[in-house]
């Protein structure tokens, strides 16, 4: 089963995908298996983490921007945020794999699945693949 969802993003912002992925797992009826979440974009990423304080997202994005600032001296680029977004995406990753047990993702009690937008704003695609077994 493959599920494709469109989401609207904002530059340098985080989108919580946890409910979307949990719903896909629940609707699949799979009790034990694997859930892969992927984004087919080179200026965005996925992470599993926990931030009970929304300022944690600002800290994460601020630190990524400090480490890889948008600048005009990249060798390739459509724009400075495009070029830096490629590097941030490559470092953080564009897919995650989670175990499904008893019909639920095996996330920690405060963990979630989050989409990081490095360029945008955009309409982005999220792909969810659920495998039984």
Strands of the widest sheet, in order across it, are 1-8-3-5-6
Along the chain, the helix and strand elements come as EEHEEHHEEEE
Q: What gap, in angstroms, lies between the N and C termini?
A: 13 Å
Radius of gyration: 16 Å
Helix content: 25-40%
Number of helices: 3
How would you describe this structure to a colleague?
This protein has helices at residues 18-28, 55-67, 80-92; strands spanning 2-9, 14-16, 33-38, 44-49, 95-101, 104-105, 112-117, 122-132. By secondary structure, the protein is an alpha+beta fold. The protein has a 5-stranded antiparallel β-sheet, with helices on one face. It has a 3-stranded antiparallel β-sheet with strand order 2-7-4. The model has no long low-confidence stretch (mean pLDDT 91). The two termini are 13 Å apart.
Task: Briefly characterize the structure.
The protein has 133 residues and is α+β, with helices and mostly antiparallel strands. It is 28% helix and 37% strand.
Spell out the key features of this protein.
alpha+beta, 133 residues, 5-stranded antiparallel sheet, 37% strand, elongated, 8 strands, single chain
Secondary structure elements and pairings:
Elements: E1 2-9, E2 14-16, H1 18-28, E3 33-38, E4 44-49, H2 55-67, H3 80-92, E5 95-101, E6 104-105, E7 112-117, E8 122-132
Antiparallel strand pairs: 1-8, 2-7, 3-5, 3-8, 4-7, 5-6
